[in-house]
Amino acid sequence: MKSTKDMAKRDFGSFHASNVQELLSLSNEEYVPHQIPFALPSFSDLDKDSNGELLFGRQMKSTFFLLEESCCFLNHGAFGASLKPALETARKWQLYTEEQPLRFYDRELMPLLVHVCRRMAAFVSCSPTDLVLVNNATFGVNSVLNSFPWSAGDVILTFNITYGAVKKLVKHICLKTGAINREVELKFPVQGRKEIVDVLRTHLDACDIKLVVIDHIPSNAPVVLPVREMVQLCRQRQVRVLVDGAHALGALPLDLTDLDPDYYVSNCHKWLCSPKGAAILYVRPDVQAEVRPAVISHGLGSGFSSEFVWAGLHDYSPLLALHTVLDFWEALTPSAIRKYIQQLLKDATDLLIKCWGTRLPAPLDMFGPMALVELPESIHQMFNTIDYSAAETVQNALYHDFNIEVPIKSLQGRLYVRISAHIHNQLDEYEKLGGAVLAISGRAGNSGVP
Ligand SMILES: Cc1ncc(COP(=O)(O)O)c(C=O)c1O
């Protein structure tokens, strides 16, 4: 068996990327990481209260994020918010790159990326040879759908709540290949997970489907879909399944080996709080040979990992900064982070439901780090038609008049606020939201305009 030391003697570089595969295949005992050329931040000394509990909320926001203090930022789900120390690490990588660009790109980058990939694979419980680092979920989904061996008439199943850009990609693929898109409607309010599994089963039984696309946490209606059961249904029928988990990494515990989808995509720059431009794509070993990266470069023909590792010359610092992101998560522990998020989301939804006299479109335990809460009747009465434009009007009023950043969604004839909860949020922000929505509807009631 070769050791990392033997391999390190060989050159890497964008033109000879095959060693990547070998380094990823080494066992943890055999693998020796490439040295990181500067010190990474340490999180051994985190601020705690007198009971030894971590100080989440405002304290976390000012210490670890660049978010404006004055902004009530309840839309982490849109573009995430990057950890300050991870941005500093990314900056260090950029500066280091420029000290000797050839040394960095040709000799060091590949083994450095292997190291990050191995850590990410451990975080999501899969083999590092089944995971590649990409720049965003969009790249991952494009790679999978463009590579799929479509024939005219093949059916691809999506849902009404599939991410908008992915719906467009599916339409494009269908136009190009003659495949057919069948869109399944999930209706809200939804009573429970079984309802969703049953809808999928009905469609799988009704027609011959080649690929199902499941959003683990859909953007517009962020209930956590029962992907475990849904993937199992597909696998039992030998239907391929792509899970778009753009929102899942960090938000939910992920065990990809156990979940066993054909393809799984997730962003690091949303709930994991990495610098922008970091995501993962998992592909099950038996279908890897089929999957080509959305951008073809030097790695073509050198194996799954090597094909994805180099997407042309670009800034790889967001990927390399994942070390700091993972160090942060390990120091706080994913369970403590998610416990805070879940409690905050529960408290926030309780508060808003009480404040507005409304409801959630699904049981609370179906939501992850985001929830939809129906807006009060008084808001609905402001509009003749409940549509995207009504939602936008309320969203803009919240932003411009109250400095609250939160999306309003129009879903099957009702308006909802989609709140996010992360470690930088705290309950008084949702109190402010509750009052602002009532103020907007009160203002409309008095003057006839919002
Ligand atoms: C479900 C889902 N898929 C894909 C994406 C695209 O992510 P990105 O723009 O980082 O590629 C998003 C973004 O919000 C999303 O919510």
Automatic annotation (TrEMBL):
Transmembrane segments: none
InterPro entries on file: Aminotrans_V_dom, PyrdxlP-dep_Trfase, PyrdxlP-dep_Trfase_major, PyrdxlP-dep_Trfase_small
PANTHER family tied to this protein: HERCYNYLCYSTEINE SULFOXIDE LYASE, L-CYSTEINE DESULFHYDRASE
Protein name according to UniProt: Aminotransferase class V domain-containing protein
Alphabetical list of Pfam families matching this protein: Aminotran_5 (PF00266)
Domain Aminotransferase class V: 120-357
Organism: Elysia chlorotica (Eastern emerald elysia)
Keywords (A to Z) from UniProt: Pyridoxal phosphate
